[in-house]
Amino acid sequence: MGPNLIGCSRRYVQLNPQLITKFEKLSGICKPMTADNNLHDLIHKLNSFGVLLSQESNLDRLLEILVETAMDLTQAQGGTVYLTEKDQTGLRLVFARNELIDLEKSGLLDIAKSSGVLLFKSADGLENHSNVSAHAALTRSTINIEDVYLTDRFNFSGTRTIDQKIGYRSQSMLVVPMVDHQGQLLGVLQLINAYSPSDGKILPFTSHHQSLAQSLASQASIAISNQRLIQELELIFESFIRMINQAIDEKSPYTGGHCARVPEIALRLAEACHQVKEGPLASFRMSDADRYEFKIAALLHDCGKVTTPVHVVDKSTKLETIFDRIHLLDTRFEVIRRDFQIEFLKQQLCAAQQGQPIDAHEEEARFLQKMEQIQSDQVFLRQCNKGSERMSDADRARIEQISKQYLWVPNGEQASVAFLSENELENLNIVAGTLTSAERKIINHHIESTINMLEAIPWPNHLRNVTEYAGGHHERMDGKGYPKGLTGQQMSVQARILAIADIFEALTAADRPYKNPMKLSQSLSILKKMSQEGHIDPDLFNVFISSKVYLDYGNAFLNDAQLDVR
Q1: Which CATH architecture has domain 252-313+439-562?
Q2: Are 234 and 243 in contact (CB under 8 A)?
Q3: The domain 17-229: what is its CATH number?
Q4: pLDDT tens digits for 323-342?
Q5: Is the model's pTM score more than 0.85?
Q6: Cα separation of 523 and 541, whole Å?
Q7: Are 446 and 473 contacting, i.e. CB atoms less than 8 angstroms apart?
Q8: Cα gap 139→222, rounded to integer Å
Q9: Angle, nearest 10°, between helix axes 253-274 and 538-546?
Q10: Residue 56, SS3?
Q11: What span, in angstroms and rounded, lies between the C-alpha atoms of 497 and 544?
């Protein structure tokens, strides 16, 4: 008998008499059985098979279980399982086993996987009924052959050739199609050479073997269909997420890349923490399900930005609203410059008309000095508008002085007004960056929108933490973050990881309108200071450094000029 991988424990379960009766009626197995293969043992193996199918999430392992169980219950020397190609035009081999041949060492497995089975002979749709597996798939019928060398129903010339090369004799064969509840072909189970456990003699597959194989294939089809359904739903869900990020990208190219890059950093850091064996993070471990949940949270961490006004998200200078108001100031300076020129020329003309002596050299020097001052003030305001450097008290005082110094008369006004409006003064006096406090609140509101959007989703159990992970990346270890003011102890490790990923991406990003991309050395220096000041988790930062997550990410996403740390 082949290796018993399913029922190897030989433990008997307490059976429901009705279950036994139903099984006997369905399978037709009413004959006496040997001690090694009695009814109780058979049902136990089938029960075990069902349990394993329900627990197994890996498709390759699921198919391996199917083949091994089918070989065991039908006393087959070999088993193969094919799955349909996505376009439903062929079958591809995904798993094969033979008790007498090492398929991997012989190279047969690689050959079979590379060749596959065509369901149609040509592009015109002519069905391939010469191949037994293709025929079973196309007709959705089970094929039971006593001796493949003696039948002319199918072409087994390839089987003969391989047999001659490896010294094997393919004889009995059982081919069972696997179909889902909608009649969609999933694949084909193929068993070869049933044999007698007592003397090893090759036997035909019996009707009982055929019933068992069909039952196993049917159960496996349900499991495969369920797995594919789960995979398709996950793919659709992730596609919706990426669609949201793409919408943000189209809305603002300055944040679209951010939505895609933060998960790259976060998942790298999470994996590095998973490998830590000592210290505060030694107990942090992630299963594949945990990784997927964190990936979804990272992808959605800024989804609330779809609600943020574009002119605020894209504000690259202090005076920019729907357009950059620095050009209005340029126009005013030009008006003032020309007004001063006109006044200068008027004075000279008046003096000449009245015959008054004038010192042309002195007047011209005063005129040029005034022009230089206007030019200097204009350049200064343009520099302040960029927001790339922190404003000093002296800078802010000079802005006030410029506003009062240059009075002008707007179109339609009766009296002169200050050069800068109150709103322009407020914007130009922004200490750092380009956003006023009101605009900063609008930007910060995106995390509240993110939380509200995610809380509205009825998350399944395996994604129940997505909102907490995604909604906490602007919190701080010292409780001074937003929106909830959580401390580090109130946050999950995943949320703290996202906080670091969010900041590091922003520091190194090359597509931000208000700054140049930082080199790694400067970015890491800022992160280190943040870890010391209670902003980010110092333990996570240490892993970020020791595992060189920054370099792994940098090699993949940053410019060479930024990679100044190894």
Answers
A1: Orthogonal Bundle (1.10)
A2: no
A3: 3.30.450.40
A4: 667 777 787 788 778 778 88
A5: no
A6: 12
A7: no
A8: 19
A9: 90
A10: coil
A11: 10
